[in-house]
Amino acid sequence: MPQTDAPRSAFDAATAVTSTDGGGLTARLDPGWDVGPGILNGGYLLAVVARAALTASPHAHPVALAASFLRATPPGPATLTLTPGPAGRTLAHSSVLLAGAEGPSLAVQVTTATLTDEPPVYSAAIPPDATPVADCLPPVDDGALPHPLPEVGLRTRVHTRLDPVTAGWARGRPGGEPYLRGWVRLADGREPDPLALLLFADVLPPTSWATGRFGWAPTVQLQVLVRALPAPGWCLVEARANEVAGGWLDEDYRIWDSTGRLVAQSRQLARLPR
Amino acid sequence: MPQTDAPRSAFDAATAVTSTDGGGLTARLDPGWDVGPGILNGGYLLAVVARAALTASPHAHPVALAASFLRATPPGPATLTLTPGPAGRTLAHSSVLLAGAEGPSLAVQVTTATLTDEPPVYSAAIPPDATPVADCLPPVDDGALPHPLPEVGLRTRVHTRLDPVTAGWARGRPGGEPYLRGWVRLADGREPDPLALLLFADVLPPTSWATGRFGWAPTVQLQVLVRALPAPGWCLVEARANEVAGGWLDEDYRIWDSTGRLVAQSRQLARLPR
């Protein structure tokens, strides 16, 4: 149980939703979770949407979210229109439509359930042999890298330690594989949970950066599956594009907790950076 | 162009949607596309939903569908409620709610666009070294197998030739890996297109069958990405579960056309067979 006198986590505050007198839900989208001027991170928005879905669910956790990114969502006041679907003992469905100042921007199918940390009966998702956190790229630009991670809001909210094995591009030596991995945790010290895993499911730069293409790859549709309650500590996040064709790319994420347990998977379809 | 005197494909007929006078859309769900008594195949339903989305899109093809399976959809009359989203030169978004006799059963986020067969600029999705079609399992039960594919409607609509390398279970020798692959094509002779790929994205038995667990694994949420226009001929379909835990499993599909080109990917979260 959290101590009642503990300072509220920045992540919890920035993803909070509020019930209105009319029975609706609102949020105040925090400009600090951006990945570029006025562009909020998709995973951050999913965490807000999941909180809205949980307000009407008998279950405690998001287990599957599928989101269409209709248009960019600006920071500021937003409304969440929640349409509950069937709810049972095992799981509950709902749809959530997030609308910012410029209209509906994110349409999401949500499934909630109650996750556990009971061990898998089968797992083929072995974590990669990643470089230890202490030997990864520095969390902030210390001037040593020709192409550091941009100092966008998201990087000050999520400590991101890229594995140097997949970050040749940061040293001016991009590779041939659209593959990135790194360790992440919330900068506010809050331990990971299913809501934080939604954030982590879109937390790395576009995989095209690994090949030296540094544009922004706008997400078109993103599915995230949360598979277990994560243990405290750093999460290892891996992102890989499997196919780049016709102006489209997919990005597959796998996330393991500090014990090496697979805790989330995501797949997005995105447009190729120009 | 199809010849105007060609007999209509059974798949096209079974997935047709009709505009009503009131501006709505209806379909007549064909009981022949079942995977068990009264249970229609999820991929078949997605093809119907995609046709509904295309009626209001400036684009020709489904490229991303994400569906929440709210409850089983019975055969018979169904309505499709289409909510168009933003539409542009590159892509269009919409939401479709499918309702059968028992109420809303499938809530889907759809993205449409116009696909090509231009070669990929990057691909890491190399097709597996599958057994040639002629040496695969027989398409119908010839009495030689202790556990053949059940003769459900879907198998008479889709020719399914399982690779014996992944079908030890059919011979009474299940393996340890939840992995299946096989060749598929429409029984009506119609060549594959993006709508058929939606069908193929959920066409194999549950991957748990490979390990000797023969129950039904109900889909909770399914995302399908269509990546290119498929060439004529057989498609190779591969399904793999990565993690089975807490009563949940994921199933990842990859589909290649007859030239070995990756043409679709899907991922579903399902409940474990009892």
From TrEMBL, chains A, B:
Signal peptide: none
Membrane-spanning segments: none
Top-rank taxon, per record: Bacteria
Domain named Acyl-CoA thioesterase-like C-terminal: residues: 141-270
UniProt-listed Pfam families: 4HBT_3, 4HBT_3C
InterPro entries: ACOT8-like_C, Acyl-CoA_hotdog, HotDog_dom_sf, Sec_Metab_Biosynth-Assoc, TesB_ACOT8-like_N
Domain Acyl-CoA thioesterase-like N-terminal HotDog residue range list: 30-112
Name of the protein in its database record: Acyl-CoA thioesterase
